């Protein structure tokens, strides 16, 4: 573009990817060992939808990307009616959305995945990657929490399992250690007669990050004073994905009614600690937590009764 009088047009190029080495190994053991030996300069590569953006923007400067997509079990979805569901870490979200087993037994997981970005991005993005990214706004994390998900991890000392309830320690931070590779997310058999719903507020109808997200799951339970139990998870309103325990307790302890649901929604609002950002103020988020929790729980309750 030519200069105009008294004005110089300066073009700032979009940052490109830094130089890195692509590493592809033949086993999880070898991959964990390589990551441990190159601590601070190597990262596992699954879908890559977050990795490449952060490297392009200069936040991550790893010298090595270790491709783990093709290793044992990483691309498998399996369902056992006696055990539950296992989704490999490299299974993309569109496969989850299309899975008959997911839609029959864990439909809220498909519902949440369908709200993520665009169809094209979901051909690369993965549920496990969404979890390991540990964004407080992660769309699928709430569904994974209320479904009692567990992350299967391979490290230098072998395999272990990390309950999702204690997996997140801060924004972008998890309990994964050097050399660890998340290989799958597993879900137990869901409670009999359960219903669940994900309600998301974004700046537009499709593909936006959540300003607030609420996942609600409810089911009959004769041991609860109310006769029902609810599990709740809130997105984009705290440093980590948030389970409002007091709101869950209210729904378990008191007869389910509009007043009880409203009180639980208020408790959910009190539990959150949102921030102001370009997508919404903290106060707006607090009010939307109350409104969306009431909506999500009401919809789940109506489905249970129906």
SSE blueprint:
Blueprint: E1 21-24, H1 28-37, E2 42-45, H2 51-56, E3 64-67, E4 77-80, E5 84-88, H3 93-98, H4 100-105, H5 107-114, H6 119-122, H7 127-133, H8 141-146, E6 150-155, E7 158-163, E8 168-170, E9 173-174, E10 181-188, E11 195-201, E12 212-220, E13 228-235, H9 245-253, H10 258-271, H11 282-305
Parallel strand pairs: 1-3, 2-3
Antiparallel strand pairs: 4-5, 5-10, 6-7, 6-10, 8-9, 11-12, 12-13
Helix pairs in contact: 9-10, 10-11
CATH class of the largest domain: Alpha Beta
Low-confidence stretches: 1-6, 8-12
Radius of gyration: 21 Å
Give the strand order, joined by hyphens, for the main sheet: 4-5-10-6-7
Q: Which structural class do the helices and strands define? A: alpha+beta
Give the overall shape: globular
Taken together, the total number of domains comes to: 3
Classify the beta-strand content into a percent band: 15-25%
If you consult CATH, what is the topology of the largest domain? Uridine Diphospho-n-acetylenolpyruvylglucosamine Reductase, domain 3
Count every beta strand, where a strand is a DSSP E run of 2 or more residues: 13
